[in-house]
Amino acid sequence: MSFQNPAMLVVAAIAGLGLVLAYRWLQRRRTALLTAAGLRPPRQGLRRHIPPALFLVALILLLVGLARPQATVPVPRASGTVILAFDVSNSMAADDIAPSRLAAAQAAATGFVEEQPDTVDVGVVAFGQGAQTTQNPSNDRDSTIGAINRLTVAGGTSLGEAILASLSAITGESVSLPEEGQPLPDLGYWRSATIVLLSDGEDTGGPDAVAAAELAAAAGVHIETVGIGTIEGDTIEVDGYQIATALNEELLTQVAEATGASYHRAQDAQALDAVYESLDLRITTEDEFVELTGGVVAVSVLLLTIGALLMITWFGRIL
Fold first, then answer.
1. What pLDDT was estimated at residue 43?
2. Is 236 within 8 Å of 101 (Cβ atoms)?
């Protein structure tokens, strides 16, 4: 605990000592005057001293309040880094979620970004056959939303590339899977980072998605996966060919569970909004400097009130 005006503590101590001595002097003088008048002083029970003691403590606390006490307390809040990894492959143009899978994901993500506190940095990764960071983690909401709105569909899908690019955005270093038989690279521990992977789950190549998820887990990063599309699926046209596309929940579930996170199904726009509201983002504690003056004053007023009520109840007067 610290104080903005520590000199007031000296004043409070001197005033408190003075008030105690003054009270004792008044009690002795009252006894002496009664004795001089030939009267027997009343018995000094403990009850007689309780209300004055409450008044004295309350006055001392009020002076301590003038010292502006402060303390650092841990406050729980959502914080850290969230990477929104968008599947922008051709299959995301399917309209089994109106107006399209990608458009619905963009609309819901925009609302999610707008609701995040300044303590959460949000980045954007776009992935198809490859992946790239289109917005580094930041609390600049306008830039993040702009990056989301610029996404367009093209190419195939690589969930592994999406995870590796997201880890690169979190750590600030290029991340790749090790050669077979080699240990996982040390990425540090990023317990306040979460990747939100939005995809229909159709993986068409690239690094192994589950192995990439295990690398994320070793770095303390959760991957919340969101399945965009319907089980029945849809048919899209690519380069003149009709291609059937449907939601692959099995792989998305494996990726999420590998990091201790959850898979979420979003088969329509409303469900997608609900998914964002239920995402298990990290809650951390941050030290916050809090002024305690209000609390000290409240305790002082409470003591004054209790003392006054006791005086009225026991002695029929306040002083």
1. 62
2. no
Measure the CA dihedral 102/249/89/243, to 10°.
-100
For the packed helices 249-258 and 209-218, what is the interaxial angle rounded to 10 degrees?
20
Nearest to 253 by CA among 278, 273, 225, 234: 225
d(CA 176, CA 216) in angstroms, rounded, equals 11
What DSSP string runs through 44-70?
Answer: --HHHHHHHHHHHHHHHHHHHHHT-EE
Q: Dihedral, CA atoms, 205, 210, 214, 215, nearest 10 degrees?
A: 10
Query: What is the rounded (10 degree) CA torsion for 263, 265, 266, 268?
Result: 180
Give the per-residue pLDDT at 49: 77
Tokens standing for 106? Answer: 């963009």
Q: Which of the pair, 110 or 273, is modelled with greater confidence?
A: 110
Indicate whether 204 pLDDT > 70: yes
Q: Which of 301, 317, 311, 312 lies closest to 59 in space, CA to CA?
A: 301
Place of tokens 């521990």: 189
Asked if residue 185 lies in contact with residue 136, where contact means CB atoms within 8 angstroms, the answer is: no
Per the CB < 8 A criterion, the answer to whether 233 and 185 are in contact is no
Please enumerate in sequence order all residues whose Cβ is within 8 A of that of 192, keeping only pairs 6 or more positions apart, or say none: 79, 80, 81, 282, 284
